[in-house]
């Protein structure tokens, strides 16, 4: 049991040292482990460290995936609208058209109102 | 009056912690984009070393982020690092992948060797690549939690405490699991070497 804990500490410290780019000798000396098992495990850790390198996803893949994920926003809204009941969709369409008509009315009738206001004082003078 | 309808200023997502970012990501895809930037490499590496090839790693990585995006609304902070949630999604997808395809632990050796070629002399290169491939094969034969531990330690370079947070275990449990993992890997590699030795011997005898 005590030996297990000693080995656990050794492998942890050796791994930490390797990952930090340091020599493993300090860890070996610190734990005073020179058994065959200790040596085997240190060699194995070094081997894993050499073999496992960080890989990077292909730049095009990373770019496309991000675009697909974030580009869904607009299609997401359309999809959500499509999922709504038909009468709600009609109501939304009617509200949209109504709003648009109101906007146009304000733009054009608003101008004619101003014209009327401007002409009215003249008419009063006559 | 002018400020009445003004939207609250959007924070710089790069400055936010994961948990803060998740709150924004529930409403704003741009915030999810920042999560993507932070974790794409990590998740890709995790899946790459669990599957052993680029194509599957790309497919599954995409699935992880699609699933994360569609479920982030339901994410609840339970004091566990957010990345544990992402790794959990990745872990489940990899497990499903191996189960569905019925190709658990099969390694495209050539693919791996081609990916890890270094600038050594050719003969040395071939030998070391073969050794690396054997090691990777042995790692992929480990139970999923042990594979995750090895990847988090050597690729993510995480401490036992951080690994414990991601895997939902104590630091002591991770330390012990790491030791046991190394022991089983050593035994597996010794077995492989014995099998290779016996196969070579049979070949030589067959020729003789």
Count of domain modules of chain B: 2
What kind of sheet is the major sheet of chain B?
none
Q: Compute the number of strand runs of chain B.
A: 0
Radius of gyration of chain A: 38 Å
Order of helices and strands of chain A: HHHHHH
CATH domain class of the largest domain in chain B: Mainly Alpha
- The Rg value of chain B, from CA coordinates, equals 22 Å
Helix content of chain B: over 70%
Helical run tally of chain B: 9
Textual characterization of the structure:
The complex is a heterodimer of chains A (about 130) and B (about 210). Chain A is mainly alpha-helical. Chain A has two domains: about 1-50, no CATH class; about 60-125. Helix content of chain A is about 85%, strand content about 0%. Chain A has six helices and no strands. Chain A is rod-shaped. Chain B folds into two domains: about 10-105, Orthogonal Bundle (Rna Polymerase Sigma Factor, Chain: A); about 140-208, Arc Repressor Mutant, subunit A (Orthogonal Bundle), CATH 1.10.10.10. Residues about 115-120 of chain B have low confidence and may be disordered. Chain B is elongated, with a radius of gyration of 22 Å. Chain B has about 210 residues and is an all-alpha fold. The interface of A and B includes residues 19, 54, 56, 62 and 73 of A.
In short:
Chain A is an all-alpha fold and 126 residues long. Chain A has helices at residues 2-19, 25-31, 36-51, 59-70, 72-83, 86-125. Chain B has two domains: 11-105, Rna Polymerase Sigma Factor, Chain: A, CATH 1.10.1740.10; 141-208, Orthogonal Bundle (Arc Repressor Mutant, subunit A).
């Amino acid at each position: 049991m005590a030996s297990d804990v000693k080995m656990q500490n050794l492998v942890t410290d050796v791994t930490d040292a390797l990952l930090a780019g340091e020599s493993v000798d300090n860890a070996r000396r610190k734990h005073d482990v020179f058994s065959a098992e200790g040596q085997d495990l240190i060699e194995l850790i070094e081997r894993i460290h050499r073999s496992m390198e960080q890989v990077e996803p292909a730049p095009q893949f990373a770019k496309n995936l991000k675009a697909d994920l974030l580009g869904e926003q607009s299609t997401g809204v359309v999809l959500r609208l499509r999922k709504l009941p038909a009468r709600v969709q009609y109501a939304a369409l009617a509200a949209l058209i109504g709003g648009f008509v109101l906007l146009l009315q304000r733009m054009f009738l608003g101008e004619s109102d101003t014209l009327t206001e401007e002409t009215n004082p003249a008419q009063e003078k006559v | 009056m002018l400020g009445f309808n003004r939207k609250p200023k959007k924070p710089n997502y790069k400055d936010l912690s994961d948990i803060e970012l998740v709150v924004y990501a529930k409403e704003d895809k741009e915030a999810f984009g920042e999560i993507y930037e932070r974790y794409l490499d990590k998740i890709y590496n995790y899946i790459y070393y669990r599957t052993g090839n680029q194509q599957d790693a790309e497919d599954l990585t995409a699935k992880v982020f699609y699933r994360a995006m569609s479920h982030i609304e339901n994410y609840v902070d339970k004091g566990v690092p957010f990345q544990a949630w992402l790794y959990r999604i990745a872990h489940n997808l990899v497990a499903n992948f191996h189960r569905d395809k019925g190709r658990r632990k099969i390694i495209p050796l050539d693919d791996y060797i081609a990916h890890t070629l270094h600038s050594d002399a050719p003969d040395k290169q071939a030998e070391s690549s073969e050794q690396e491939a054997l090691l990777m094969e042995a790692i992929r034969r480990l139970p999923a939690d042990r594979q995750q531990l090895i990847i988090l330690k050597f690729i993510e370079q995480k401490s036992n405490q951080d690994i414990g947070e991601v895997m939902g275990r104590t630091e002591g449990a991770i330390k012990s699991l790491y030791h046991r993992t190394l022991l089983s890997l050593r035994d597996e590699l010794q077995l492989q070497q014995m099998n290779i030795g016996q196969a070579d011997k049979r070949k030589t005898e067959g020729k003789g």
